[in-house]
User: Which sequence fits this backbone?
């Protein structure tokens, strides 16, 4: 086979260039430490590198977010710790203030401190991180809490800012001031107990508890005290006293009795079928006074005025309506044989009361201690919103109450009991928010660990795709250098062989 | 005796010819296209002397090339394909490099931009975080533009290259024509063809073949006709036609190839017919790789801009107004053919209805005299045919043409995303104009006694249309729970009518939808147990500068699978990089293979036709000896003659 000289030369040069190119590429790979220099080296790998780098970038961003969330949450936590301390101090002051040994001067001192702490609470609630108010919701540039003439206003909103801390995982990095300071209830959280300011007795009412939340019907109730004909103190409870009053305790709401001096064998029974409590005469106490064996008058028990009468009564029959049409809205029968002069009384049913009795109805209960007077009332109402500031203010207001006589002191003690309960509620609400923050910080920490693991795995993955196997590459490089040298040497040798050199 | 002299002189003469040819071979050892030559010699016709024939010496019959047409054609074809792949590879590697550049690539710029959006969501009220979003958006736009500019450079370089190649091709064609003329004139003389002219013509033709594929036809008179493309005549005998570059009928910034036949003939565009050679490689790269890459990059830009805008439009900025557009969304390019008689689609006739449905392809609308049909050029699929010329395809809404077509064959090309990257631009300049917060805020009234909590849930696929959500944010929607609290009332903010006793189940998401056509773009999420009389309000989020809800949603644009419902922006860009990488890789492999084939063809041809200097050196000695021997013959004849003379003397 013949070879042309030009081709021989060209081939030699080309193989040199090829070897050089290969060596240079390996050298570039070694210098950069990367297996893929351009996407053409491994198109799928190059795309994978881009995807992996993005995935890593996204997760590392979450890690940055977690740092932000942690610093915000710890700032919030430290503020709430301050709030906790304040509430505890207020509770101590309330206990001191409620002590009957306080003099007016010492009460003034306590009041001054309470008012000081109310100021502090407002300042804490308006804490700013230098840029944003912590508890203003989304309106983070608006001062969240302001006070005008004792009225506290929340100027923020109920927004809670979320931050992404992991794929598909968002964590609240703030709590709105509404939730932390405003959305609290007065009383015990379900209902409030307040003695009437004009009570003459020394009855004190406890804040009470809920025993059966399903039986609780939110409304206004009134506990009424009265003395019965024999001077015993008793009470009854009326729901919605200002509207359509209905007695909820005791039941039945009426009682009937035969006078102890009756000569006949007559007995009285009440029948509540179709009873109408709204009848104007329902609770009018009446005496049924027999004028003959089959005739009787219906007499107002308070005024002894005759209201109506019945003649020719057949024992066991319904009494109402009476001959004159009187109908109190319930039904009664007198059986057996009453005699003339016998009398029977129908009046509002009430429970006899002893100091410290527990009063319960509609799934709630509370205690009244001391000695209420006839006509004293206590109001039980469903709880309404009361901000933490208002609770603090309620303590200050309670401390300003007059305590000049036992009745006033009783009212004061009830009010202090209510405020102390409200402070407890504020404390537990605050603790709940703190616990939530703690849970979030824990969650964020877990997320951080998970993210760190994910980034590590992705980076390993990236390294597998992207990084050069150094040992392998250096071996290859050495071999390529050897080939290059061989090519250079053989080229020089072959170029040196010329027949013309030998022709003299 | 005279015979002896004659033989000796013929030997001298032939040896001289041989030496001359050998020298010619030696001196042309490195001449391109040179085929080594040899002297064909034969014994002269003998003369009859008595009963015998006596030799009369040697004579040169011909000087011939070591030449094989098959081998020359094979080398020419493989070289043509090599040049094509070489140009293709040169260009794809360049594009590959642009896309892969770590510092200038799109990937890091997108990541940085979304980093800034994320930072904004951490601190939405911070002016500096907002400023960073603007500047990283600007640098994202800069990166888009940078890559697009580099691609544009490639278009221009291809155009310049085409011009240069065309002018060289014209000169080569002229050379072939001239050589045809000389060869036919010389060839008509008695004797053989001039070898060196044939070599030069072969060389010129093979150089032409390095521009594009050619076919040749040898004529009886020795001339060669050269055809290109699908049989267009480039050289006919002594005449060469002229190639030129002309603007594309749809896009006059783009150069196409045309051929003008002599004698005032019309010029025909032959771009699509050309294959092979450097020109073929450049054209194929331009239509197969570069066009697609630019469309694809444009698509990423258009989808990113549009999706960010859609989300940004749904938020409230620091002025308590709905967010403006964040990025410029490039409009589709509409290119009517300059050859159209009447068919004209205005730029406003074509709009993008849904960026997520875009494919990155160009579309061609053809009018056949009665109907219009639209073809997706990427896969040559005819998508629809109708008589109006209005289409809805692949996220595009194309209205009927402004001026209808009249003549069959009128065409318009639509490039939906070609300008996407180039016109991608950050439109926001003021930090306060970034809409990081949601436009509405839900509030439970302070006096509520129930435990109901209200939240607004944006509808996953976003607000329906601009007209719908500007209307509702001005008004406050109040929800009041009835007694018992298992229904609620509200006043419809649009119609003003009372909607009473809407059923409510705690924890259930309320699809609050007003009149049939009205959808406020959010759902009410009420959990807990509201009490009778509880009031919840949904109102404009005035001064909610600490709200990051919309910023969070903007951040979702990065990883959501918008594109055709299955790819994220990053996926689409990675796909582009990977596609170009794959093309480059494939081209590299093909080029290697083609180099081997070309080298093989060259080697085989060279084995026959190439000059080996050692061989020529040996021949030199051989013919020198032949010459010396012939000279010795003369001496011998002379001494014979002297002998006779001496006898006489």
Assistant:
């Amino acid at each position: 086979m013949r070879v042309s000289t030009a081709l021989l030369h060209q081939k030699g040069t080309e193989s040199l260039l090829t070897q050089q190119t290969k060596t240079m590429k390996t050298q570039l790979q070694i210098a950069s430490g990367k297996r893929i220099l351009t996407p053409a080296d491994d198109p799928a790998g190059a795309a994978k590198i881009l995807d992996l780098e993005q995935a890593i970038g996204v997760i590392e961003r979450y890690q940055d977010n977690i740092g932000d969330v942690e610093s915000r949450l710890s700032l919030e936590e430290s503020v709430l710790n301050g709030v906790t301390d304040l509430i505890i101090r207020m509770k101590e002051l309330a206990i001191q203030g409620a002590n009957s040994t306080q003099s007016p001067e010492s009460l003034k001192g306590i009041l001054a401190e309470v008012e000081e702490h109310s100021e502090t609470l407002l300042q804490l609630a308006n804490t700013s991180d230098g840029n944003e108010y912590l508890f203003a919701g989304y309106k983070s540039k608006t001062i969240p809490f302001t006070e005008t003439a004792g009225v506290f206003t929340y100027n923020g909103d109920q927004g809670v800012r979320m931050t992404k801390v992991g794929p598909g995982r968002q964590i609240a990095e703030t709590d709105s001031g509404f939730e932390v300071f405003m959305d609290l209830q007065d009383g015990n959280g379900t209902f409030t107990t307040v003695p009437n300011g004009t009570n003459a007795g020394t009855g004190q009412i406890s804040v009470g508890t809920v025993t059966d939340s399903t039986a609780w019907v939110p409304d206004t109730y009134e506990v009424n005290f009265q003395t019965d004909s024999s001077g015993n103190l008793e009470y009854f409870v009326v729901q919605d006293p200002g509207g359509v009053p209905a007695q909820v305790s005791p039941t039945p709401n009426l009682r009937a009795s035969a006078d102890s001096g009756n000569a006949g064998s007559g007995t009285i029974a009440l029948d509540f079928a179709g009873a109408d409590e709204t009848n104007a005469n329902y609770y009018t106490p009446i005496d049924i006074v027999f004028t003959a064996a089959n005739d009787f008058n219906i007499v107002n028990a308070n005024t002894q005025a005759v209201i109506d009468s019945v003649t020719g009564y057949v024992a066991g029959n319904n009494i109402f309506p009476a001959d004159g049409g009187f109908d109190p809205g319930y039904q009664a029968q007198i059986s057996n044989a009453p005699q003339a002069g016998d009398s029977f009384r129908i009046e509002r049913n009430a429970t006899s009361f002893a100091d410290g009795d527990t009063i319960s109805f509609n799934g709630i209960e509370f205690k009244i201690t001391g000695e209420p007077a006839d006509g004293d009332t206590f109001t039980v109402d469903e709880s309404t919103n009361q901000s933490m500031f208002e609770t603090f203010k309620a303590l200050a207001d309670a401390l300003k109450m007059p305590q000049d006589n036992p009745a006033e002191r009783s009212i004061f003690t009830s009010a202090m009991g209510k405020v102390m309960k409200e402070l407890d509620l504020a404390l537990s609400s605050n603790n709940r928010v703190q616990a939530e923050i703690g849970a979030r910080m824990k969650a964020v920490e877990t997320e951080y660990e998970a993210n760190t693991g994910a980034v590590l795995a992705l980076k390993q993955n990236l390294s597998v795709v992207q990084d050069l196997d150094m040992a392998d590459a250096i071996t290859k490089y050495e071999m390529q250098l050897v080939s290059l040298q061989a090519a250079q040497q053989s080229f020089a040798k072959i170029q040196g062989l010329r027949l013309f050199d030998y022709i003299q | 005796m005279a015979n002896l002299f004659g033989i000796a002189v013929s030997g001298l003469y032939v040896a001289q010819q041989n030496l001359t040819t050998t020298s010619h071979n030696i001196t042309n050892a490195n001449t391109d296209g040179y085929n080594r030559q040899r002297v064909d010699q034969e014994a002269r016709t003998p003369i009859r002397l008595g009963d015998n024939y006596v030799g009369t010496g040697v004579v040169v019959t011909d000087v011939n090339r070591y030449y094989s047409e098959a081998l020359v054609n094979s080398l020419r074809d493989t070289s043509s394909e090599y040049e094509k792949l070489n140009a293709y590879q040169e260009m794809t590697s360049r594009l590959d490099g642009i896309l892969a550049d770590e510092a200038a690539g799109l990937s890091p710029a997108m990541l940085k931009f979304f980093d800034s959006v994320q930072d904004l969501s951490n601190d939405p009220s911070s002016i500096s975080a907002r400023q960073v979003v603007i500047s990283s958006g600007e640098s994202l736009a800069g990166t888009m533009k940078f890559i697009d500019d580099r691609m544009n450079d490639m278009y221009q370089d291809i155009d310049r290259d085409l011009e240069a190649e065309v002018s060289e091709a014209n000169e080569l064609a002229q050379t072939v024509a001239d050589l045809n003329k000389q060869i036919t004139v010389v060839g008509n003389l008695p004797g053989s063809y001039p070898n060196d002219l044939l070599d030069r013509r072969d060389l010129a033709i093979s150089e032409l073949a390095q521009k594009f594929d050619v076919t040749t036809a040898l004529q009886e008179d020795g001339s060669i006709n050269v055809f290109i493309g699908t049989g267009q005549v480039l050289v006919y005998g002594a005449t060469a036609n002229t190639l030129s570059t002309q603007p594309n009928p749809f896009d006059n910034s783009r150069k196409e190839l045309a051929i003008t036949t002599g004698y005032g003939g019309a010029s025909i565009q032959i771009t699509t017919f050309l294959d092979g050679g450097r020109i073929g490689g450049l054209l194929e790269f331009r239509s197969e790789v570069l066009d697609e890459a630019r469309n694809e990059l444009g698509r990423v830009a258009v989808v990113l801009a549009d999706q960010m805008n859609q989300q940004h439009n749904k938020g409230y900025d620091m002025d308590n107004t709905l967010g403006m557009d964040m990025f410029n969304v490039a409009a589709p390019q509409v290119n009517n053919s300059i050859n159209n008689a009447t068919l004209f689609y205005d730029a406003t006739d074509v709009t993008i209805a849904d960026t997520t449905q875009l494919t990155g392809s160009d579309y061609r609308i053809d009018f056949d005299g009665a109907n219009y049909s639209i073809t997706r050029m990427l896969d040559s699929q005819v998508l629809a045919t109708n008589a109006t010329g209005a289409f809805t395809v692949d996220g595009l809404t194309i209205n009927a043409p402004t001026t209808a077509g009249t003549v069959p064959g009128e065409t318009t090309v639509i490039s939906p995303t070609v300008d996407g990257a180039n016109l991608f631009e950050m439109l926001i300049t003021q930090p306060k104009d970034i809409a990081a917060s949601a436009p509405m805020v839900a509030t439970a009234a302070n006096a509520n006694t129930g435990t109901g909590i209200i939240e607004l849930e944006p509808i996953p696929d976003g607000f329906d249309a601009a007209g719908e959500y500007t209307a509702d944010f001005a008004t406050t929607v109040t929800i009041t729970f009835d007694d018992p609290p298992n229904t609620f009332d509200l006043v419809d903010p649009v119609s003003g009518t009372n909607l009473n006793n809407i059923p409510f189940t705690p924890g259930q998401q309320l699809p609050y939808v007003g009149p049939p056509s009205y959808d406020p773009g959010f759902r009410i999420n009420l959990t807990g147990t509201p009490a009778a009389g509880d009031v919840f309000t949904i109102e404009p989020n005035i001064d909610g500068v600490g709200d990051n809800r919309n910023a969070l949603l903007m951040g979702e644009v990065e990883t959501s699978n918008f594109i055709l419902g299955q790819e994220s922006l990053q996926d689409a860009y990675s796909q582009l990089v990977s596609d170009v990488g794959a093309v480059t890789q494939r081209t590299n492999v093909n080029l290697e293979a083609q180099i081997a084939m070309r080298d093989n063809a060259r080697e085989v041809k060279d084995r026959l036709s190439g000059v080996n200097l050692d061989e020529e050196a040996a021949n030199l000695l051989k013919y020198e000896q032949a010459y010396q021997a012939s000279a010795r013959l003369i001496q011998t004849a002379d001494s014979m003659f002297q002998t006779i003379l001496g006898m006489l003397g």
Residues 330 and 420 of chain B are 5 Å apart (CA to CA). Residues 2-66+610-648 of chain B form one domain.
